[in-house]
């Protein structure tokens, strides 16, 4: 459970921003979106492989730029 402790001097806007940041970092929304629909194991495997390909390609691009 994500929670933010606020004091009297803290503003509501600050608390909302801090809460959103914590939720984003914890990955709760990402997991919720992922589990929203059922994906077949074969489709999940294909998506995972495509993500790995994209990561590998971007890592190679980054490495070639650094040289």
Structure overview:
It contains three helices and no strands. The longest helix is centred in the last third of the chain and has 26 residues, at 41-66. The mean pLDDT is 92. It has one domain (12-66). It is flat, with a radius of gyration of 19 Å. 72% of the residues lie in helices and 0% in strands.
Mean pLDDT: 92
Q: Please state roughly what percent of the residues sit in beta strands, choosing from under 5%, 5-15%, 15-25%, 25-35%, 35-45% or over 45%.
A: under 5%
Radius of gyration: 19 Å
Computed structural class: mainly alpha
Flag low-confidence runs. Answer: none
Can you write the helix and strand succession as a string? HHH
Total beta-strand segments: 0
Helix content: over 70%
Number of domains: 1
Given the C-alpha coordinates, what overall shape results?
Answer: flat
Largest sheet: none
| Helix count from the secondary structure assignment | 3
Task: Give the CA-CA distance, first to last residue.
Answer: 44 Å
């Amino acid at each position: 459970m994500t929670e933010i402790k606020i004091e009297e001097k803290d503003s509501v806007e600050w608390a909302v921003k801090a809460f959103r940041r914590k939720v984003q970092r914890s990955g709760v929304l990402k997991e919720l979106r992922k589990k929203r629909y059922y994906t077949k194991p074969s489709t999940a495997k294909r998506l995972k492989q495509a993500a790995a390909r994209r990561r590998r390609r971007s890592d190679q691009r980054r490495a070639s730029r650094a040289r």
